[in-house]
Specification:
By secondary structure, this protein is an alpha/beta fold. It has 3 domains: about 60 residues, Winged helix-like DNA-binding domain superfamily/Winged helix DNA-binding domain (Arc Repressor Mutant, subunit A), CATH 1.10.10.10; about 100 residues, Periplasmic binding protein-like II (D-Maltodextrin-Binding Protein, domain 2); about 100 residues, D-Maltodextrin-Binding Protein, domain 2. It is built from 11 helices and 12 strands. Helix 1 crosses helix 2, helix 1 packs across helix 3 and helix 6 crosses helix 11. The protein is globular. The termini are far apart.
Length: about 300
Amino acid sequence: MDRRIKFRHLDAFSAIARAGSLKRAAEQLNLTQPAISKTLRELEDIAGARLMERSRAGVRLTPAGDVFLQFAEQSTTALRHGLRSVRGGGEMSGHLRIGALPSVAGTLVPRAVRRFTASAPDTLVEVQEGQHHDLTALLRSGTLDLVVGRLGRPDSMVGLTFRQLYTEPVIVVTAPGSAAVSVASLDELAGCRVLYPPQQSAIRPLVARAMIAAGQPLYETRIETTSAAVARAILAEDPTTVWFISQGVVQPDLDAGRLVALDVPLAQTAGAVGVMRRADDMATSSARTFIQVLAED
């Protein structure tokens, strides 16, 4: 076996460590579970140490793996930046890779990209939309330069920095003409089909806190999804459906009259929206300029 550590080893190791699961890490990297398991075994053979413990509950780092993770992520980040700098002829590589969470993918990020490309037409901008867990994994691996969106749970922000731009509430929306339009309390939603944020969603803890404050148990009729496309399709077909969602995700729909917001109180669901970057990363000129554009929006 080749005894050299390669990018694929480090990317796989980092993804498994952050996901806590071989299956979830394999999905993020578009690999099969046997393939990512083999890659991890190769890395442990090369390192000469057990880096992870596997169990039915998932995967966790050994003490050696915890130390190795820090150096692995720092190394891949530095090497990728070095390669981009050499290929691009300096710090301004001409390529900016942005991750956009759903709450900003249809509003803030498109506006900022238009303004940025007007001032830097020679820079290739790549935008990838996704969920918080997936995009921050790509950010840590060096695949993305920055991620824009809601601040995640504390454990999801390890190794990252966050610059707040504004706060945004969670709202409940439905289709125009829906029987739910007149609903004005959380308990009344029990008679509706509810589209609810799943466990990994950045807004789940905020909605859960509002539900607990109101003494409202989880809805038995709920469907948990992070897919805006799925939610919009269900809303269009079922007039009894309501959707808990960040306002930024549906603001274009509200402005166009495709959805309406219910007058349902959701205390303390305003969350910070901003820019995430790797804590050990020195931003390129392109990234710094784009962040400034975002701040001026």
